[in-house]
Amino acid sequence: MNNSSYSKETLYIHKGYKTGKHQDSLSVPLYQTSTFAFDTAEQGERRFAGEETGGIYSRLGNPTVQVLEERIATMELGGGALAFGSGMAAVSTILVHLTKSGDHVLCTRGIYGCTFGLLKILNEKYNITHDLKALMTEEEVENAIKPNTTCIYIETPINPTMEIVDIELITKIAKKHGIPVVVDNTFSSPYLQNPIELGADFVLHSATKYINGHGDVIAGILVGRDKEQMETIRGSVQKDFGGIISPFDAWLLIRGLKTLHIRMDRHSENASTVFDFLKAHPSVENIYYPFDKDNPQYDVAKKQMKAGGGLISFTIKGGVKQAQKLMNELKLIKIAVSLGDAETLIQHPYTMTHSVVPEKERLEMGITESLLRLSVGLENSSDIVEDLQQALSNM
Ligand SMILES: *Cc1c(COP(=O)(O)O)cnc(C)c1O
Question: Which domains does the chain have, with CATH numbers?
Fold first, then answer.
């Protein structure tokens, strides 16, 4: 099924797979194998020489993984994709690919906690520097680019403050300087936002989150505009660093993807209901949601996102103790990091996901003591609202 005239929801279900080639199996078969046997020694030689397609060894490629990669490349409007054993393996692979000692990475002012940790390692061990900057205006982007900047790394919406950056604005300026742009698109999923369409060169996902959507896999995806470049990364950093996905996890992601569009519509719908409730609640001090009409970047969010997504952050009066009390009062909503699952999850970035970030940077990122991040799930939205209501009334 390679007809690109089908709409994207159809491609999420069919792209990259032909039943006839696989004993007519409707479901994509799970090739749970480490290696592939050659008919003859000469065939092995041809496969290694790249003269014949076919399996060699699952770290270099696997038929189940290949379906997943083709499907996600299509969903993100890219030329090719690589699947990894975690989102961080995708992040580290692209950063290693785009930098060498002495280079500089320019980032949005908020980034995922472990991405921050990785940049710290790259800095301390390999002299690759980075800056976290607002990047809201053309002037800010121009001023933040250095002669040795070889990568601009964007998260939007930013975790966990839900700040929106204008992907199109940044990619336009980056292009003038010949600097590749990487977007961590985890929060939006390929259904709500397609950075390549807005000029980005690479898009990555923690597929652990919305792409899988069922809270039972850790995985990552890297999509690139250019197929050949993606094959270069496959044959170099991915192959030699080795952070590949297991065939079984790829199979679960293929299964998750079939309902991505339906799940994202419902996540966004439920989040919008929960947002309206929290925004009107007297105990809620600040609230952050991309499609909040009072959000200064509302127009940018509307321009680049199909819907508001499932994540809401908010602060309440008080500090760490008050935030923890609210979480402990919840009955239905689970206290857990991660996001994008069917279950509604709440976490406290200050003491959990971003506790590794030094206090100064944490506060600069807007991660205050009472900030809570809610990943709105697929339950009936009135049950989610009711749980928050009873917990807030006990504060
Ligand atoms: C979870 C997450 C990651 C890291 O992904 P893992 O699958 O946990 O390795 C990176 N970026 C964002 C925005 C995330 O939420």
Answer: 3-30+61-257 (3.40.640.10), 261-393 (3.90.1150.10)
**Parallel/antiparallel/unpaired status of strands 202-206 and 220-224:** antiparallel
Confidence of residue 333 (pLDDT cuts 50, 70, 90): very high
CA of 146 to the centre of ligand 1 (A): 27
Q: Quote the ligand 1 centre to 395 CA distance (angstroms).
A: 31
- Ligand 1 environment, Cβ below 6 A: 86-88, 112, 114, 155, 159, 184, 186-187, 206, 208-209, 218, 220
Residue 212's Cβ-count burial label (10 Å; 0-12, 13-18, 19+) is: buried
The model carries a pTM of 0.96
Nearest CA to ligand 1 atom 6: 87
Atom 5 in ligand 1: residue holding the nearest Cα: 87
Q: How many helices and strands (H and E) does the chain possess?
A: 16, 12
Q: Give tens-digit pLDDT for 347-363.
A: 999 999 989 888 988 88
Do the Cβ atoms of 217 and 207 come closer than 8 Å?
yes
**CA distances, 191 to each of 20, 195, 207, 245 (Å):** 28, 11, 13, 22
Residue 11 φ then ψ, to 5°: -70, -30
For the stretch 103-125, pLDDT in tens is 999 999 989 989 999 999 999 99
Contacts of 91 (CB under 8 A, 6+ apart): 112, 114, 115, 118, 184, 204, 220
Q: What is the pLDDT of residue 20?
A: 87
Query: What's the gap in Å between 323 CA and the centre of ligand 1?
Result: 23
pLDDT tens-digit series, residues 189-226: 999 999 999 999 999 999 999 999 999 999 999 999 99
Ligand 1 centre from 370 Cα, in Å?
Answer: 22
Distance from the alpha carbon of residue 6 to the mean position of ligand 1, in angstroms: 30
